[in-house]
Amino acid sequence: MRCVRPLFLACLFLMTSLRAAGPVTVSTFRSALAEAILSEDADSQIELVKKLADGGGDPFLEQALSAWRQGSLFLHETNEIRTPFLLDAQTDLDGLALALRIVDGELLKDSIGKPLKFSAADLTPVDTSSKLRKALKTTLDLFSLGNLNPKIRRDALIKLGQEQNSEYLPFFNSRLPGESDGEVRRALEEAVAVTQIASEDPRVRDPAALRLGQLRSITSLQFVKKLEKDALATPAQFGKNTLTAARTAVQQIETYISIGNLFGTAFRGVSLSAVLLVAALGLAITFGLMNIINMAHGEIMAVGAYTTFVVQGIFGGGLLFSLFGKTFSVKGMGLTGGLFDCYFIVALAASFVTAGLVGLALERGILRFLYKRPLESLLATWGVSLILQQAFRHTFGSANVQVNAPSFLSGSFVVKDVLFAYNRLFIIGFAVFVVFLTWLLLSKTSLGLQIRAVMQNRAMASCIGVRTDRVNMMTFAFGSGLAGMAGACLSQIANVGPSLGQSYIIDCFMVVVLGGIGNLVGTVSAAAGVGVTDQILQPWLGAVLGKITVLGAIILFLQWRPNGLFVTRNRSLDG
Asked: pLDDT tens digit string along 229-256?
């Protein structure tokens, strides 16, 4: 190892000189590899191989180095001319493969220009020593640092840094001044510090530990904890300063992780609140208007989710479904790319229409006969929910169906190691848009005026000419349409199955009751409180106990304010 390190520094100097002289081309690296293969001096081979670590932009160079390390590199000798080559991966019927020259990647040919073919079993590979194979591995490991994609460079640096191989340090340090990407530069600094905390020199180790704490390096936490544990176990070897540095770094990183987890959980809670808000808006309006507890509201959400699945199949490769015991297939349009991604926008509108029609049929067929019989209406809607669940099972199967996110909702971006998914951001924005449209409907349209009049005093509104039956029908259809769009949004973040609605109906009712029946501002406030609180409590208490805690808190709150956060005045009850 002592003999290799001076050579390693020398090759780093040579590589830096090459950079200063001008850009290094692919042919330069391939020529250097050919020179290394033909060299008779082992130390010279190692030096030349390590110079190739900056040639990661050439896939053929990586293939040739791997072949050399694995004993699949050969020499062809004619007229005292030795040509290194490797065999192509494809072979003919006779088991022969074409030969590719290392220096330029072209086919190896005979004197008359005919491509040569060989069998690997008939060839003798180029010799390698253990030191050379180690140098080849090091070079291959460092190849990704020259990749043009910054994400690949960043991931490679994280992996290489965790190996804590001191031989990588000169390469890391040499790339720092020229690295322009912020994430990659941070990964370089982390890789250097993680490698240095394995040093036996406290003058190197202690500042490296402190630097990792300053960088809030989550990936290095296990290494810093190990250093802290070792310093506690053998204080005479590590010293008090090392223990202090390690403890400081661990505290900084763990605090950073806790804050990140809190913000990440809060973001997920806000996205859940957005779904609950869209779903509960319609329930709040219909509950406040008709005084009917619609137990089928969750299944109407599932109607929207399944509508999204159907629209996806129509835009894509088609779908299968069952009806009256027979299986039917619908041929899709076979769209791809941006045209296929449009399916979700269409699905939002289709979910609103489909769920609205289901709600309209429910109101016209059952609920209008049960307006003054709340218990019977509750039992009737509960029966409808069971019927819809069975209809989903018979039509789409009892298993969950796959709804793929469009490309513009796939992926996420990271801020301070907090993940913000595009689909959840879309749901939040969509919920704000729906709340704004609902406010416009209730406050700026004649239908909204009639809805508010019926909610305040149904008898008086009927006396002045408001067609209360028509208002009931339109309001219930609108509320069901909102539930359908909530189901379409849920298809992007949750499993779509027959029991989808049952997972959210209780939360929706909690939002409606807590916010104040029929109150838009109260529904928004309650949805935000229930969603965020539920997501924050779940990591600590678990999913079930977290929901129980939220429900218990709401019950206690309603003991104090039975009408919820905001009370909707009902003139029929004032006197």
From this structure: 988 988 888 888 999 999 999 999 999 9
